[in-house]
Write a structure and sequence with these properties.
The structure holds two protein chains of two kinds. Chain A is built from nine helices and no strands. By secondary structure, chain A is an all-alpha fold. Chain A is globular. Classes of the chains: A mainly alpha, B alpha/beta.
Amino acid sequence: MQVFKIIFISALLVVLSSCKKEIEETIVYSNVIYELDDVKIYSSNAEKTKQKSPELLLSIMYSDIFNQGISTNKLLEISELSASNGDKTMFTEMIFSQFLSEPTANVPTDVQMRADLELFIDENYIRFFQRKPTVYEKIYLKSLISGDNDITVENVFTSFALSNEYYFY
Amino acid sequence: MKRREFIKKATLTAAGAFVTPYILPSGRLFAPSGARKANHVVFVLFGGGIRNQESVQQRYLLDQGRASSGNIMNNMLTGAAPTSNIVYNPWAPVLSNSLQSQGVLFKEMRYTTGPTGHYNGHTVAMTGNYTATGLNLNVNPDHPTIFEYYRKHNSPRETALKAWWLSEGLGPYPSLNYSRHADYGAEFGANYLCPSHFVTGTGFNNLNNALSYQPDDVTRIETMKDFFDVNFDKSIGDLPGVINTRADKELIKTMLLSTLQNISSLNLPLPSGVSTNELSSDLLNIATSWKVLETFKPELTVINTFNLDVCHSNFSGYIQNLHKADYGVGWLWDKIQNDPVLANDTVMICMPEHGRNSTPNSLVDANGLNAYDHTSDQNSREIFSLIVGPPGVVKQNVSYGTAASPVGESVDIVPTIASILGFDSSIPSGLLPGRVLTEAFI
């Protein structure tokens, strides 16, 4: 599934490179992703050494939330909106909050999250970081969420999406 | 209390009273270290390539072989409008007194060296250095921008919330909010926005439910993010673009999203009764710039207009867009003068990035008028500049320069802005070849 996602996104980016002059440089950088091995999940985050381009980040973010690849038009639109803003991390926050609000977003409810916190943490480390959490990470995050009833799924997902690790592959 | 102790405490208290900071009317905590002329500067890159003939010389269609002259920039310049051969839709001026009468007009300035291309024209104006690059390269400029000089050398240092660059279009223009200079860069860059690609139906469709975070949510998100980051040994510091503080991010998001989600509340620079179909991307840029100015009271704002570049093939469209952009600038100044913080504390500078050729190309528009390119001939190096501001700061109704004796160059705007905001003496020597246009000031 991860390999399919990367191939699909890379193909989209190649299409985009022919019609969007202003993102040309980034597209070339993104092509590096073709050379990734067929690794389904990372064994540790130390294996992530390359930073995602803004377009690749948006594409992966979309597929992480909707469980499907982003359409060419959608990626063009979002890339243009991103280019229109000087603070890319701020735009990422805005578009991510929009993704989470969409009816088709694959977002569990808070009740579902709290019903099995360990499963929720496992699943979403794989969803966002393509790796399993360490024992320490699982214990810490479980303690944090269970200790604060006001932490929402949206809070957790946003933290994943804004973390440094999410920007690397 | 012993006498010596009493005297010591009294002395410290008295000294404290003198050094205790206080909030100035502009919202600043401290007065800046350098002597400021004003606390806000708006630089309008009145761009797209404007010939002095149709602007300050008010020749209208004389160079087209038609006996009709007059002023089509009735907000910025003093002079009667054309009365015959009207190829544009005239709008009544928004200002009762022209900007020329409220400041200093440099009628003949020069863009001395380098290709007269739009991007490098913008680069020269915003970095204060001529460049030989003629291509629209989508890379940050080599020389520091005015934003970086401001954010690095102004005292006290301000966040990017106080420095904005709003461009009419995308292309290479987003790259002008900071340079690649080793001593400056994104850390000192400005916020950037392109309203014609953001304040749109596409923007609304893709962000209509986006949210700013509430303070409690910010704390929770930051706590978890910090945990994730502690367990990862790389950072996203190399991401392109300026990065705002957390507090500023939320303020900017709130402004952007409220603008998008309540688009009808955006003030538009259109005369009463004129359809919104007449709203050009220049005017949208000016409208959004006002939203930024009104909301954040930035100390340094640079915006551009660009639509009149249709002059490559459509001279009538050039005239129309020049007239509209003039209206937008007048409208913006009127808004500034009705704002309790910005009024009488703002200097506005208008300057085209370059001119256009003296001889037309081979294209003729629907009205039979010849089109003009800008290919670095002498005419395309001839520009003007208008500096307006409070009467106690900027000279009123004065002009300098003739064709035989031009005054000022494109590269002079950056040092002039630095002087207005009081940090010019802090900029290391050798970085800026231009000079402060001291003629403009009292």
